[in-house]
Specification:
CATH architecture of the largest domain in chain C: 2-Layer Sandwich
CATH class of the domain at 33-138 and 207-298 in chain A: Alpha Beta
Strand order of the largest sheet of chain A: 10-9-11-19-18-17-12-31
Number of strands of chain A: 31
Structural class of chain C: alpha+beta
Largest sheet of chain A: 8 strands, mixed
CATH superfamily of the domain at 33-138 and 207-298 in chain A: Aldehyde oxidase/xanthine dehydrogenase, a/b hammerhead
Shape of chain A: globular
Oligomer: heterotrimer
Largest interface: A-B, 60 and 58 residues
Chains: A alpha+beta (760), B alpha+beta (159), C alpha+beta (292)
Radius of gyration of chain C: 19 Å
Largest sheet of chain C: 5 strands, antiparallel
Distance between the termini of chain A: 69 Å
């Protein structure tokens, strides 16, 4: 069925190209990698959240029959303490290396301290038990505010606070303090008619991909290293492995296997350099797969936070001032995600004066990493609450205040960014116009409804594509973006559209780092946007070359050949793409199109909104989601089914974050819920259908108007659900997750306050 | 440590293998028999990625010893499609875009087939309840539930 | 270091002699039913070699018998089999719903009531339900079978009265007579797949006028073992199990509970909710009995 948007392929719903492999079990994921002579590697992890490693004795493990290699942190090459930029901003190499295998200190429970390769997993596990590590246990600090206090246990002996771009020389767990200002916030607050301030906390949460991290490495006698892994970015993985192993990237090939979910958490490397060194030491290929507890204890997560939001409005309902204090845990090493949070905290509103004060703080938890719109969910939970309170004080509906203040084209954010054409208003209007919003809210004393809006800025970065025209008129399209959710198809569709082909005529594949040009990570909602753009440009390259071939056949100038709707024409001459593809042999042989892009300037951010209906059981505090709608600006939905899928998946991750998900640490810093039993991601039975409304405000910065839809959808759910809970039972939690015992406690406190008010 | 000999039937074929007494059926399938379509997400029965059928009953292969497969019939994802093409449930997953990363998909498909074998006409609630042991982090389950309901409908109509 | 081994005896005698032989050889033997706890623990808190003795091939442990006076559920029978038995579900709805609450469809395909009891977790869902309906454990012992009431079976967190040379054959449950029924409820934060934050099982008998003549209440996950709550039962007996009686039973459960704060909930929360569940399970059991 053709799409009703002027396009022939874009907007249709073809079967994804890798679909059959994935429904038959034939797709090869990282853990499925098989090589002759494969050894199995295992990692020994610190049982302590904070400890100095005094000594490690591996002699008994080395002596165990079947053990082929044993490593500790000191076996990693020491390339000095340089600053490296690996695609995610500058980082200290020491931190990257120490997170792979600790040297002097274990900084979180689960921190790798040694590794073994053996002939079987069981032997490797047995060997781990034989490694003797002497620790000096240190007091751990697990909370962002406690970590910032004077006298808090210090994670890094040499870390000093960077403040407003300057090194203060002050030793502290506060890695970075920075601020954004726009206008004069103090004056604006003083003049505001209504001012509301609240504080919020959000728990550390994990990306929760179902596939554990894995890496298989083969170190050849000639010094060439091949790594097969499930990664969001093979080139970034190659760069990180090269940095940690102090070897040139030309010596490393990363083969991206199919990947079982990432959500930001499979950008960093963990096992890859360890498997590589174990392979080097043993002379055999080594496969490593993390256990599920290890995934929770030592990968991801995304930061827990403490946030204060103050906003002021005038009596007309115009928001005139905003102030945010955002403190994020970055886990064991600095370089967290508070910068992204600052870009999102007031991103949905046009606010003339404001201030955003940000703190990046180390705590004894695993190094935090990106998780779908990283930082945005935490701050949306906070800001949306305060916006609702302003509305309540002003006697406005929540949607009304948002439509009065929505960010729009030309809005200058407090962090300085000026918006190009944006779809915030259209998304909010789609709430208003939806059947869900216009239907009556859930009946009954404990039902309620809430709305919210959230944002993600999206990224561009570099992508490469090559396209080989086959004699039968199909095209083999090679790209470097690992496909986590159907992007082979959304990229191939843009290629097909450009050349007037069917989606099925394009055969996309994801290649290794030796077989395609540099391509940045699958992250930032960038693949359909940037790799799609590369495919578009590669298609234009093919088109130009085919025009020349047609010109040869017709003995005209290339400039006289026109291409339209899949047909090459010059005068009365006409050849379809397929016909011309069949005649390449006569005109000089194969045609390969190629393109690279680095389109940061055209990136279009995406807004997402929710309508959530809930029912609260006031006796148990359980919140049931009765109905849930997600609305998002896709710019242009290339494959609407997979756009909906992103919206639904992000929504449900947001619902999990809202209601149940959290890292639950014991007092001494041991993670108590490192399983899918106790780290409670939503099940199918916890949810209704997730209704979707795709808004299309085309991004003028992309040839097909694509914005990228992977992330903004996770930001609004906790806020919408909090608003719905308040509508249902009159209390609105200010801490995530809004788990049952917290709801019951809040209701009890609410009743006690009411009783006191009545009594007093 | 001596390995034990096991005779079983996998996807209709008689299979013999040797395994350690404490090796899970999942590890046997993946590491000894090369049937890597069955996935490991947790190894504790909490995610369902390793779902297989034992004598027609849905189980987590990570929670069963390989030696317990003696004399039973095992169905894995590799046994869902026939020589004549995909099973209707596989087709419906593709049509409905009911997979994103695909790591949970084999487990979901085996579980979905087990559901339709057991209850050819499930309600949405029954589908959600049956599949609650299969975790998916990508889709939010919406399209999976629709695919299963649609497959049931199609099976129903062709019956 | 010992080795792993697997045995699949086909009779009680063979199983007992296997256990005795392993004990005599100084090996650890572990009975294996559905394996859904054993396999998980073997990968985490309870590593180490052992001989698995599979109860599922022992004929007596595979029996399911619904008699006029007694129901017998073999220790090797998977929950899914119980849940597919409509007669059993109508006779002991509370017990079967407790069994059905444990884990996913996949877990149901393997997990057994006997295994749940022998795992002896404070949060085992079938344990309060078994206690409420008066179930008795039939234990195979070298000296002959012995019987232990379920409320006396579990002795602590993960421990029970079984000797290393004994195993559970199955559970004998008195068949409810007249207007008798039961119910079990647990609270979990999700809708499926969780361990109980707390649970409550209620079994009761009503007379022709709807007055409760007998009741038993047991609560789980609020102490190191499931607790019998005599005060809750007493609050129901002699009443029509109306709201006041249920509220009194709820208070009795909350009062007896000695929960801890952990990842699944706080002390205050568990104490409150175990009362809520007692009240709700009592109402369900009452309605079921009234419908008979």
């Amino acid at each position: 069925m053709p799409a009703n948007n002027g396009y022939k392929v874009i907007g249709t719903r073809p079967i994804r190209h890798d679909g059959v492999d994935k429904v038959t079990g034939r797709a090869i994921y990282g853990a499925d990698t098989q090589l002759a002579g494969l050894l199995y590697g295992q990692v020994l992890r610190s049982p302590h959240a904070h400890a100095r490693i005094k000594s490690i004795d591996t002699s008994k493990a080395v002596a165990l029959p079947g053990v082929k290699a044993v490593l500790t942190g000191t076996d990693l090459p020491d390339a000095g303490d340089q600053i490296v930029d690996l695609g995610e901003g500058p980082a200290r190499l020491k931190y990257l290396r120490d997170n792979v295998l600790a040297t002097d200190k274990a900084l979180y429970s689960g921190h790798p301290v040694a590794a073994v390769a053996a002939t079987s997993v069981h032997v490797a596990e047995e060997a781990l038990d034989l490694i003797e590590v002497e620790y000096e246990e240190l007091e751990a600090v697990l909370d962002v505010r406690e970590a910032m206090q004077e006298g808090a246990p210090q994670l890094h002996d040499d870390m000093t606070t960077q403040e407003f771009g300057e090194d203060t020389g002050r030793k502290s767990n506060l890695a970075t303090h920075f601020e954004h200002r726009l206008g004069d916030a103090d004056k604006a607050f003083a003049e505001a008619d209504v001012v509301v301030e609240r504080e919020f906390q959000t728990a550390t949460v994990h990306q929760g991909y179902i596939e554990p991290h894995n890496a298989t490495a083969s170190w050849n006698a000639d010094g060439q290293l091949t790594v097969w892994t499930s990664t969001q970015g093979s080139f970034t993985a190659r760069a990180q492995v090269g940095a940690v192993l102090d070897m040139p990237i030309s010596k490393i090939k990363v083969v991206p296997q199919e990947i079982g979910g990432g959500f930001g958490g499979k950008i960093p490397i963990y096992l890859e350099p360890v498997a590589a060194l174990l392979s080097k030491a043993s002379g055999q290929p080594v496969k490593m797969i993390m256990t599920r507890p290890a995934v929770f204890e030592s990968t991801g997560p995304t930061p827990g936070s403490y946030i204060k939001i103050k906003m002021g409005a005038d009596n007309s309902g115009k928001i005139v001032a905003a102030d945010a204090y955002i403190a994020f845990e970055s886990g064991a090493y600095p370089g967290g995600l508070v910068g992204a949070a600052a870009m999102c905290v007031f991103s949905c509103y046009d606010i003339p004066d404001g201030r955003i004060d940000c703190y990046d703080v180390v705590v004894n938890k695993p190094r935090s990493f990106a998780y779908r719109a990283p930082g945005s969910t935490q701050v949306a939970f906070a800001t949306e609450h305060v916006v609702d309170l302003l509305a309540a004080q002003l006697g406005m509906e929540p949607l009304e205040i948002r439509l009065k203040n929505n960010a729009t084209t030309g809005t200058r954010r407090i962090d300085g960014v000026v918006y190009p054409k944006m779809g915030c208003k259209e998304v909010l209007e789609a709430i208003r116009d939806s059947e869900h919003y216009q239907s009556s809210a859930p009946a009954g004393p404990n039902g309620g409804r809430g709305i919210s809006v959230g944002y993600w800025f999206n990224v561009g970065l570099k992508s490469s594509c090559t396209a080989s025209v086959n004699a039968d008129g199909t095209v083999s399209l090679v790209e470097g973006s690992t496909d986590i959710g159907g992007t082979r198809t959304s990229v191939a569709m843009q290629f097909a559209e450009t050349l007037g082909l069917q989606a099925e005529d394009v055969k996309p594949q994801v290649a290794d780092t030796d077989s395609i040009g540099h391509t940045d990570v699958t992250g930032g909602s960038r693949v359909t946007y940037a790799t799609g753009w590369a495919a578009y440009k590669a298609a234009l390259d093919v088109q130009d070359q085919l025009c020349e071939r047609a010109a040869q056949l017709w003995e005209v100038e290339a400039g006289q050949v026109e291409f339209d709707d899949g047909v090459f024409r010059s005068g009365d001459n006409e050849l379809t793409f397929k016909e011309l593809a069949g005649r390449l042999e006569e005109t000089g042989g194969p045609v390969i199109g190629r393109a690279t892009v680095d389109p940061d300037s055209g990136v279009g951010g995406s807004f997402a909104a929710n309508i959530a209906d809930v029912e609260v059981d006031p006796e148990t505090g359980k919140v049931d989601i009765l109905r849930f709608t997600v609305i998002q600006d896709a710019g242009r939905a290339i494959h609407p089914a997979y756009v909906e899928g992103q919206m639904q998946g992000g929504s449900v991750q947001g619902i999990g974050w809202a209601l149940n998900e959290e890292y639950f640490y014991s007092g001494d810093g041991h993670l108590d819920n490192s399983s899918f039993l106790d780290y409670r991601i939503p099940t199918s039975l916890d949810l209704p259908m997730i209704e979707t409304i795709i808004v299309e405000v085309p991004n003028p910065g992309h040839p097909y108007g694509v914005r990228g839809v992977g992330e903004a959808n996770i930001a609004p759910p906790p806020a919408a659900i909090a608003a719905a809970i308040e509508d249902a039972v009159g209390v609105r939690p200010q801490e995530l997750p809004m788990k049952p015992d917290r709801i019951v406690a809040a209701l009890q406190a609410h009743e006690e306050r009411a009783a006191q008010a009545a009594g007093g | 440590m001596s390995k034990q000999h096991v005779s079983t039937t996998i996807n209709g074929d008689e299979v013999e293998f040797l395994c350690e007494p404490h090796q899970s059926l999942l590890d046997v399938l993946r590491d000894e028999l090369g049937l890597t379509g069955t996935k490991e997400g947790c190894a504790t029965g909490d995610c369902g990625a390793c779902s297989v059928m034992i004598d027609g009953r849905l189980v987590c292969s990570c929670l069963m010893l390989g030696v317990e497969a003696q004399g039973v019939e095992v169905t894995t994802i590799e046994g869902i499609a026939g020589a004549d093409g995909l099973h209707v449930i596989q087709e419906k997953y593709l049509e409905h875009a009911a997979l994103q990363c695909g790591i949970c998909t084999p487990g979901f498909l085996v579980a979905s087939k087990a559901l339709l074998d057991h209850n050819p006409n499930p309600s949405e609630h029954e589908v959600r309840h049956w599949l609650a042991g299969n975790l998916c982090r990508c889709t939010g389950y919406d399209k999976i539930v629709r695919a299963v309901l649609d497959a049931a409908e199609e099976v129903h109509q062709s019956a | 270091m010992g080795a792993y081994a697997y045995r699949a005896p086909s009779s009680v005698e063979e199983a007992l002699s296997t256990l005795a032989a392993e004990a005599a050889a100084g090996n650890r033997a572990q009975m294996l039913a559905g394996g859904t706890d054993v396999m998980v623990q073997m990968r985490s808190i309870d590593k180490g070699p052992r001989t698995f003795v599979d109860v599922k091939h022992v004929a007596e442990a595979n029996a399911l018998h619904i008699g006029d006076d007694e129901v017998f559920i073999g220790a090797g029978i998977a929950s899914a089999v119980l849940n597919e038995n409509d007669e059993l579900k109508s006779i002991l709805p509370g017990l079967i719903e407790a069994a059905d609450l444990i884990g996913s469809t996949q877990i149901q395909g393997r997990a057994t009531i006997g295994g749940n009891l022998c795992n002896s977790s404070p949060a085992g869902d079938t344990i309060p339900a078994l206690i409420a309906c008066g179930a008795v454990c039939e234990i195979a012992s070298p000296g002959g079978n012995r019987e232990v009431p379920t409320e006396d079976f579990v002795t602590g967190v993960g421990t029970n009265v079984l000797e290393p040379t004994e195993f559970l054959i199955g559970l004998k449950i008195p068949r409810p007579k007249g207007r008798s029924s039961d119910a079990y409820l647990r609270f979990i934060p999700r809708t499926e797949m969780d361990i109980a934050v707390c649970g409550a099982g209620v079994a009761l008998t009503l007379d022709d006028s709807g007055v409760c003549t007998a009741a038993k209440v047991s609560i789980g996950a609020v102490a190191i073992t499931a607790l019998v709550v005599p005060d809750a039962a007493a609050a129901l007996v002699g009443t029509t199990v109306d709201d006041d009686a249920l509220a009194a039973a709820a208070d009795a459960s909350s009062a007896l509970a000695k929960p801890i704060t952990d990842k699944r909930g706080t002390v205050e929360y568990r104490r409150k909710v175990v009362g809520v569940l007692t009240k709700r399970a009592g109402a369900i059991a009452r309605d079921r009995a009234l419908a008979l």
